[in-house]
Amino acid sequence: MSTVDQQLEELQDQITNEIPPDISVTDVKYEGPELVVYTRDPKQFAQDGDLVRRLASKLRKRITVRPDPAVLSRPEKARERIMNVIPEDAGVTDLDFHEDTGEVVIEAEKPGMVIGRHGSTLREITEAAGWTPEVVRTPPIESSTVSNVRNFLKSERDDRRDILEKVGRQIHREEMSDDEYVRITTLGCCREVGRAAFILSTPETRILIDCGDKPGSDDEVPYLQVQEALGAGANSIDAVVLTHAHLDHSAFIPLLFKYGYDGPIYTTEPTRDLMGLLTLDYLDVAAKEGRTPPYDSEMVREAIKHTIPLEYGDVTDIAPDVKLTFHNAGHILGSAVTHFHIGDGLYNVAFSGDIHYEDTRLFNGAVNDFPRVETLVLESTYGGRNDYQTDQEDSERKLKRVINETYENGGKILIPAFAVGRSQEMMLVLEEAMRKGDIPEMPIHLDGMIWEATAIHTTYPEYLRDDLRDRIFHEDENPFLAPQFNHIDGGEEERQEVADGDQCIILSTSGMVEGGPIMSWIQHIGPDPDSTMTFVGYQAQGTLGRRIQSGWDEIPMPDRQDGGRTERLQLEMDTETVDGFSGHADRQGLEDFVRTMNPRPEKVLCVHGDESSTQDLSSALYHEFNMRTFAPKNLETFRFI
Amino acid sequence: MSTVDQQLEELQDQITNEIPPDISVTDVKYEGPELVVYTRDPKQFAQDGDLVRRLASKLRKRITVRPDPAVLSRPEKARERIMNVIPEDAGVTDLDFHEDTGEVVIEAEKPGMVIGRHGSTLREITEAAGWTPEVVRTPPIESSTVSNVRNFLKSERDDRRDILEKVGRQIHREEMSDDEYVRITTLGCCREVGRAAFILSTPETRILIDCGDKPGSDDEVPYLQVQEALGAGANSIDAVVLTHAHLDHSAFIPLLFKYGYDGPIYTTEPTRDLMGLLTLDYLDVAAKEGRTPPYDSEMVREAIKHTIPLEYGDVTDIAPDVKLTFHNAGHILGSAVTHFHIGDGLYNVAFSGDIHYEDTRLFNGAVNDFPRVETLVLESTYGGRNDYQTDQEDSERKLKRVINETYENGGKILIPAFAVGRSQEMMLVLEEAMRKGDIPEMPIHLDGMIWEATAIHTTYPEYLRDDLRDRIFHEDENPFLAPQFNHIDGGEEERQEVADGDQCIILSTSGMVEGGPIMSWIQHIGPDPDSTMTFVGYQAQGTLGRRIQSGWDEIPMPDRQDGGRTERLQLEMDTETVDGFSGHADRQGLEDFVRTMNPRPEKVLCVHGDESSTQDLSSALYHEFNMRTFAPKNLETFRFI
Ligand SMILES: [Zn+2]
Ligand SMILES: [Zn+2]
Ligand SMILES: [Zn+2]
Ligand SMILES: [Zn+2]
Ligand SMILES: [Zn+2]
């Protein structure tokens, strides 16, 4: 008998001893980080509202109770009983019964009403029907991404259960080494922005954190091929952790599955969906530009199938010696500061991922409150000595001025924006400005994936700033549903119409003018001296966005009539940069993030910034807080213990 | 056709064009780093004394010319012709004809006379006989190690040719990467003494430098198992380079072959033989102590078979992007400072290995003169702030005083010493002291492998200090042949006799009192208050030597009558420490080594010393020379380019 089987047998005995004698335990299994307890008495289990919580704290495991398939009531009968328990206002849109596990997935417009206070309604559902309920939100704006992901996972349930069981057994394997070390290896994103990838390693466990591409570069990819990365094969990695969905962190996650990786990806639920959206688009763009994509959409589906979503604050065993906890990073939807607790008190490492320290309209500011962190890996996008950004209030004032001036000149406002994050922040700013009369009412066209990304935001309001979340719960106050927003879904024809039409604001991807519909908008708007291109986000070196921002007035453009040939396009439009909307903390925010940590880390690795930004920030943190700081290079390994 | 075959074909054309039309080239092949040129006209090739040198410099390759087997004269006929050419005084002891390659190995007491001025006699041999001569020295003191290695390599010639051809093709493979980096990974020997092991890596090439054990520790071995070491298999390493034969650098070299390594080991010829001697003894000791040896003697033979010996100063291609050069390190016989020139001007790294900066009786001081070195990996055994050692002159004075006092008291002098290095240094000091009458004449008993190690020293006088080398060439002045030296080859019986007999000096292994005959000598001499145990070498933490040195007067001893049981032995003998005979540079020597480098390296990694020694030295070099210095931990990776 394997040690894991032995462990499970002991757990089953322990549970049987802890619960009332009239409640049976027919089986216990690991599914990913959770311990699943099967019982012939699901209703009695549910009656004691505190029983599962007590068990979980006793066993120090996350516990799910499921009915033994032998005692399941028929779905038709269960449906009736469940619908009787759930208040009508909850807006249930779907019930999905899975007889293999006794789970029923309830999709509702107001999931909170299905859950009830402290989960009381969920327990009532089990007491009434004997099934184990799981609740998801009906997207307030229809999202093909969300429904595709949900349908795909439904169709792959069997496969996924096998994956989860295998991962569960891996997590709970016995520790093999009596050696101790904790190390970080840098595979990218050091002294540069892009291709984020790190390995956190102990004698037991190797975890890959992020695996992104580098905007503005074709051939600079993370150093996956070196020995300490995937040299011994992709399955030499035990787990992948994804901080957020931006492509400079996520683009090559699906590639791991092409390389044979077969383990879990830990991330938040919105990051999973956004990763699906963004990586599929990434493949699309590559194909359109005639480049060979490094993997195909099948690998994106593999990535989604292997994702184990975690919520902010959940402390989760992901290896015998590693506990992972995500915290809000304030950067984009689902973005996480990632905290690793290693070896039962031995060491703690936090990766900031990308962070925004102050609250924004969309998100609460990044969490920096951990019981312990000895080493912090900190982004440094705006870590340079002069990278202080305008307050968002001033930025909004400037943006409104730019819009008003352009409007008075009779021009249009073209804003390149990442589909995810800055676009939604802009939408909130613009919606309020129009509502309050600070700028004239005019259509706001959303092109590229902005609309779809917005739909995903409204599916996960728990991840948004608290007051915004509350507004979305009331459909009539959902700012994303304001009537001036128009989804460009009519292609070139619609763009031509808009270009020929009245004054308007256009938000379009890609955010660094590296392709996508913005290229078409530049052809329409670029030659108009009355219009304004307004940059509201970071433009990486080497991108067309950076070039236009820094004054290029002639750019190469593929001739639309004559496919292959490249023409030069003369830019006459005005260009403006409005700082302060960045999803990244500025220099002040980065220092504040560190200053307000308590206790402060002993060591900080400054990454995800160009050479001078990481070195400036490293030196500043050293002098200000007397900690050991580093500006690592790619392909280095730091040992902490 | 492979790129290597294509390369060889081009080389053959080039050679044909460079040489007179009447000299044929029938084949060219790589054998390890050498290019072997086969010709039907070996005699004509030899006639132009400068032709090979011109070709080598033109082609930037090391070139050996061999007769095409089809034109070989019969060995009996060749023998006569060869013996006619070689002066009788050369003392030829063996001729060994290899018809497969047209080589004749000439063993002679005076190899210089077989070689002639600038190789003139060698060329005469070829002109006369058509065979390609290779010369080795007849050991002045019979050495079973040397003859075993030579006989073994003779019996494995076919295998070895295959190995060399494979290695040669590997060295001259095409470069694959257009990326650039140079990194060092520390697998041991950082903030500690022992288990030396480093990886030098570029996008093309991974080189393991040293692979030793840690004296005083059973379970602290080099971190070979981590991904960036042998995680992807032992053949993920392209080459192994061994700085010297001490077990803290060499013990696990044969283990690599057990792990499946099949590539070359680059080292000097004496280091190859000493490694054979020391690792076989290491296995012996393990077996005697009832430990399971990590590999068996077959693996030692594999290591010897895969060794490509290089001489000091030879610049050798060992990978498409790496040239290796060894330089005298002054530490033990064959020890080398190891210089890597990477990527045709890109970067240069030197590993000091263990060094002695000043001349000693045995060796010239370490070489620190390189065209370029950007990073130096420097041993720090005596790098601590107070690790200044006595001058050797003062040390010799003290040693003589200790000997004279002990002699007057009627006691014996017991000196634990490494078989290799310190023992021979002691022999030279004692021989001279007796000859000059500074200490009384008495027998000097050599126990353990000291005799055999001394025989190996006399086989390779080119590696000894110049004046010593010259003395050895004249048999009557060879100090190692002085009559007071007695080889203990009669086991316990002889030891008992010596113990019961007159005053004497005993040199015995192991040098840190970790086993070997010294254990027996301690039982004989330890209880005698008139005798003196004199430490002349570094005693590592955790070793019994360190304990006795620091005052332990009772030590555990296996009871000889009753095998298993451990008795306590009361030590009554005096203990003395005479510094200054170390094979290691002291703090002053380490600083001098760096100070006199020109140009100085930009970065120094201080390794091979305990934590405070490496940190003291690192900080001193930083402040004195304003270079970037580090005291790495094990398991870190530093990137330089
Ligand atoms: Zn980001
Ligand atoms: Zn990023
Ligand atoms: Zn040594
Ligand atoms: Zn050493
Ligand atoms: Zn082999």
Describe the structure in your own words.
Two copies of one chain form a homodimer. With 641 residues, the first copy, chain A, is of the alpha/beta class. Chain A folds into two domains: 160-386 and 584-639, Metallo-beta-lactamase, Chain A (4-Layer Sandwich), CATH 3.60.15; 394-577, Rossmann fold (3-Layer(aba) Sandwich). Helix content of chain A is 35%, strand content 21%. Chain A contains 22 helices and 28 strands. In chain A, the strands form six sheets. A seven-stranded mixed β-sheet of chain A has the order 12-11-10-9-8-7-28. In chain A, a hairpin with a 7-residue loop joins strand 14 and strand 15. In chain A, helix 4 runs antiparallel to helix 6 (120-129), helix 12 packs antiparallel against helix 13 (297-305) and helix 21 (587-595) packs parallel to helix 22 (611-625). In chain A, 51% of the residues are buried. Chain A binds chain B through residues 181, 183, 185, 201, 206, 226-229, 231-233, 236, 633-639, and chain B through 181, 183, 185, 201, 206, 226-229, 231-233, 236, 633-639. Bound molecules: zinc ion (5 copies). Residues 196, 246, 248-249, 354, 608 of chain B line the site of one zinc ion.
Write the CATH fold name of the largest domain in chain A: Metallo-beta-lactamase, Chain A
The CATH class label of the largest domain in chain A is Alpha Beta
User: N-to-C terminal Cα separation of chain A, in Å?
Assistant: 34 Å
The oligomeric state of the chains shown is homodimer
**Percentage of residues in DSSP E strands of chain A:** 15-25%
Subunit structure (chains A, B): Homodimer. Interacts with RNA polymerase (RNAP), interacts with the Spt4-Spt5 complex.
Protein name (chains A, B): Transcription termination factor FttA
Family (chains A, B): Belongs to the metallo-beta-lactamase superfamily. RNA-metabolizing metallo-beta-lactamase-like family. FttA subfamily.
Keywords (chains A, B): DNA-binding, Endonuclease, Exonuclease, Hydrolase, Metal-binding, Nuclease, RNA-binding, Transcription, Transcription regulation, Transcription termination, Zinc
